[in-house]
Design a protein that fits this description.
Layout lengths: L2 H14 L2 E5 L5 H11 L2 E4 L3 H10 L2 E5 L7 H14 L3 E5 L7 H13 L3 E6 H8 L5 E2 L2 E2 L7 H11 L2 E5 L3 E5 L2 E5 L12 H13 L7 H15 L5 H14 L2 H7 L2 E4 L1
Parallel strand pairs: 1-2, 1-3, 3-4, 4-5, 5-8
Antiparallel strand pairs: 6-7, 8-9, 9-10, 10-11
Helix pairs in contact: 1-9, 2-8, 2-10, 3-4, 4-5, 6-7, 8-9, 9-10
């Protein structure tokens, strides 16, 4: 994996404008839809079982975000994954708050086991909890460092034959043959709700055009966050400026700002 992989994926998203189906939480629907539009993809928020087979037939990928799950949502999520499998589409799982309650942990593991083609994107505490290790968790916020989750991420990669993105101050993209470390982003980003959810949605956009590790999405959002923070007075303006930065991001800026280390 190299910079050209990321650049090529960004170009492809903007050319293809892939449709990304999101079964996501109430808090972030607007944020994630706007981020997908800004990067060049086409979002749709679909939750009904009655339309999911049709949606996954022509969509590029499926993003499952368990942030506001309940007894109605869980069967819908599992049905959506089954339809993604039937149409050979990649599933991006965002196990929001995994470890904070048994239903979140159990549902996350159920979805991960069901998906044929999978990318998991979570913070360190969620990744550790999903893998079954003892991680510190406070609701949906991470109390573990992303580096502390590397062992858990590798376990998930091997267990589910997937790629894992551990997001935090440093992002790690973990796959079978090693991992990539990204040090972009800004300390203000965690103060905007749903920033990790936005990364998961963007991961779906890049997966839809063949970049199935999560690297391109993490790189693009990290650089966009840096750029946005330079002109933001606080989280409110940062949220708006990130959308602008995603929309305006060019290959030269992305290449110049990216801080990436590959470990194989």
């Amino acid at each position: 994996m190299n910079v050209e992989t990321i650049v090529s994926a960004l170009r492809r998203v903007r050319e293809v404008k892939p449709l990304v189906v999101n079964v996501t939480n109430y808090v972030v629907m607007n944020n994630t839809a706007n981020a997908l539009l800004a990067v060049g993809a086409s979002p749709i928020m679909a939750h009904s079982k009655k339309e999911m087979a049709e949606m996954m037939y022509f969509a590029g990928s499926l993003v499952i975000n368990i942030g506001t799950l309940d007894s109605v949502w869980v069967p819908r999520m599992l049905h959506a994954v089954e339809q993604a499998n039937a149409n050979k589409k990649t599933v991006v799982l965002d196990p929001v708050g995994c470890g904070a309650s048994s239903i979140r942990t159990e549902t996350s593991r159920q979805i991960a086991a069901l998906a044929d083609s999978l990318i998991i994107r979570g913070n360190a505490s969620e990744i550790i909890a999903l893998a079954g290790e003892q991680g510190q968790s406070k609701g949906v916020d991470a109390l573990d460092s992303s580096e502390a989750a590397l062992g858990a991420a590798q376990y998930l990669v091997e267990t589910y034959n997937c790629s894992v993105v551990v997001s935090g101050e440093t992002d790690y993209i973990v796959k079978m043959d090693g991992y990539v470390q990204l040090k972009n982003g800004h300390a203000m980003m965690p103060y905007v709700t749903g920033m990790g959810c936005t990364l998961s949605a963007l991961t779906g956009a890049f997966a839809a055009v063949g970049e199935k590790t999560g690297l391109a999405a993490a790189a693009v959002l990290g650089v966009a966050g840096e750029i946005a923070a330079e002109k933001s007075a606080g989280p409110g303006s940062l949220q708006m400026n990130i959308l602008d930065a995603l929309y305006q991001l060019d290959v030269e800026t992305l290449t110049q700002r990216l801080i990436m280390t590959v470990q194989e």
